[in-house]
């Protein structure tokens, strides 16, 4: 009986590891079409009533578990038009892979939300904390 339970646990663990590797490195979500995107409202979008000052603002280095992240924002006509991650850790393959997938999503979410209030990606929470801290600093300079 103990051998059966051990084999079952090992099998489940192996399956979980295989799925994790697949979703981390190989799975890319399908993009929505223009017709679908125009009717859908992102859940993370928050109405922003205060206009930002036009310009380019560089957030401070925000340290987190795997290094530091620094974000730069561009504001035009009182709205965030671009968010760019100018510094992020690439020391390990795992960290680089997570950042390569998560940071572009976070950049788009920040522009869409017009703030630092948006959801994180599962598996990239630490990256989100660093990104959000630097973004908040840049927004405070613009606000």
TrEMBL record:
Annotated transmembrane regions: 7-27
Domain of life: Bacteria
SMART domains tied to this protein: FMN_bind
An MF annotation (GO) of this entry: FMN binding
Keyword Transmembrane helix tagged: yes
One Gene Ontology CC term in the entry: membrane
Alphabetically ordered keywords of this record: Membrane, Transmembrane, Transmembrane helix
Residues of the FMN-binding domain: 65-142
Protein name, entry field: FMN-binding protein
């Amino acid at each position: 009986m103990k051998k059966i339970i051990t084999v079952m646990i090992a099998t489940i663990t192996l399956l979980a590891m295989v799925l994790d590797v697949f979703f981390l490195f190989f799975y890319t979500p399908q993009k929505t079409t223009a017709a679908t995107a125009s009717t859908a409202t992102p859940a993370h979008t928050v109405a922003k009533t205060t206009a930002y000052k036009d310009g380019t603002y560089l957030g401070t280095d925000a340290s987190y578990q795997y290094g530091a992240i620094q974000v730069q924002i561009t504001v035009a006509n009182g709205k965030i038009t671009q968010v760019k991650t100018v510094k992020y850790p690439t020391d390990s393959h795992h960290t680089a892979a997570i950042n390569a997938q998560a940071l572009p999503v976070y950049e788009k979410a920040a522009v869409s939300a017009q703030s630092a209030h948006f959801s994180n990606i599962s598996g990239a929470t630490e990256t989100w904390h660093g990104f959000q801290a630097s973004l908040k600093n840049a927004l405070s300079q613009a606000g």
